[in-house]
């Protein structure tokens, strides 16, 4: 057995080393203090390194008329709804000479990129400018990071082979919640409106509600709620019995509950929504359910059709069907999506249609997009003069090319077998432009300095049964910052000759947003229509809205709609009061899978 190791120090006696002055107890304390200081310094450097991971500036890599594309997405903390200031460096590149030129709000976020709408700007935003997070959002990111550090979640180890006891241990470990878990924000309000007819003196009072909500990962699950809805809950002396322009526009909004778990094959949604893989079916009040298999998604859907901007609109229609979608690629390169499906519809539960739908798209970054949707009806013998078979009922094809950010071209082909049944009241709003040309048309859009845009579309109608073709055209202009006031305007004129009728319309849209405290929009239009689907040949309208943010949480809204036409003639006023909320409840010590 080995004995103790003896010192070879010549000063040692009896194998025991004599104590040295620097090894005294007081000096040990000094060394411990120095060691603690070094450890704290290293920890501080590590903490600073973590804090440095919070990215606060994002380069602008691409700009369209109303949107800004940023380098950076969810991987660096960007989330939908964040507001960023856009800044520009001085010509000499000095960092200290940054100048604020605008403000954007994040609308969509991918893993490494984000898209924001331009809220206001003093000059044209261009690639190379820098978008900066607000101090409030930076504070939220730091707080979220600090709370994650304070939670001290143990590291979750991964194993290559199964071990039941170890697996149970791993499943029981808490995991840090994602920043989007239980993040609920939005607005709820109530409104009062007065509807009256100047010509008859008849009127009514209406009470309604407004809901705008964005609630992600509810209760730590993968269920989320998003959308906007305004509805009527009570009417008094409603003798006018007419759908107003404001009511029709409100029905184009969506509000839905959806499920999307990246680790699950199932996807689902319920509410007022699009079927994500078949938007050509327009809005449904209903549901969809799908199951993913690699690049394929197979599912079914059902509901009613409330959207008055649909080409075959009928609010009493019920529809159900099934589909299969194949999708792949990347937003940074080529991507594609192809959907095929079959559906049946009923009107007040009486047979209406049996049809197949085919929706396809291929895209390359922002330079090229090709999109097509086709609907083919199956007609039995009783519907088709004693013979059954398939026939085209709807076809739409568009090709868009943008070789440079300042100019884009598009070519479209539009076909309807039957007369479209959208609500003619909406012609002057611009929501029906896609249906006003039948045949082949081409367009161009040009982005000029100072946020000025020009656009035009020209085509020739080629309806079945026409003795001659006719020219259709649309042109307009947008101005993003009129006289540096921040006011945005869009003016357009269209002349159309379609299967449902012929006519023209003029419209003007003006809007302005001042920070987060005030915004307004005003739209005026005139339409002239000669058609068998409506007896109204001429109508004028004015639709205005304004909102104030009071004390940071409360929202006061005022609005007016004046509509003058042969069939409908009314004034509608409303006032609303809402409450804005934004809170994030973090679930601790909960395993989130």
| Mean of pLDDT | 79
Separation, N- and C-terminal Cα atoms: 56 Å
- Overall spatial form: globular
Largest sheet: 22 strands, antiparallel, barrel
List segments where confidence is low: pLDDT < 50 over at least 5 consecutive residues: 1-26, 43-52, 147-177, 586-593
Structural class: mainly beta
Strand content: over 45%
| Number of DSSP-assigned strands | 28
Helical content stands at: 10-25%
Radius of gyration: 31 Å
- Helix tally? 4
Commentary on this structure:
This protein is mainly beta and 593 residues long. Among the domains are: 57-151, FlgT, C-terminal domain (Thrombin, subunit H, Beta Barrel); 245-402, no CATH class. It has helices at 25-52, 135-151, 164-172, 245-250; strands at 57-63, 67-71, 83-88, 99-109, 113-121, 130-133, 183-196, 203-216, 223-236, 255-260, 266-273, 284-293, 296-304, 317-329, 334-347, 350-364, 368-379, 389-404, 407-416, 439-448, 452-461, 470-479, 488-498, 501-514, 518-531, 538-550, 554-565, 569-584. β25 and β26 form a beta hairpin. Residues 1-26, 43-52, 147-177 and 586-593 have low confidence and may be disordered.
